[in-house]
Amino acid sequence: MLAKVVGTVVATRKDERLVASKLLVARPLDVSGQPDGNYVVAVDTVDAGFGDTVLIVSGSSARMAQGYKDCPIDAAIIGVIDQVDTPGQVDTPGQVDTPGQVDTPGHGAPPPAGPVPGARK
Fold this sequence. Notes:
This protein is mainly beta and 121 residues long.
């Protein structure tokens, strides 16, 4: 699922297998970038941060994330999303895609020249 990181969870007491894990609160998004669903607490596996648009997997897939095979988790952040293009949408001429935000327009638009400010390496 696509989601936006909206907060953190501080747990001074938790399962010992999660002691070094960062827990983030995320709000699912639809493909247009609008909130869609209830908040999710997920283990961060990619060093995501507040305001990032992320990819979350849940259920047994969450436990497949690096280092979490036998951990009691149900959701894991496995990617930071730079852009989402939805086929069938038409670009507005001159529109600039913003890294870190869900962007439904953009289908067919050429990528920006050079490095994208704020993009992860």
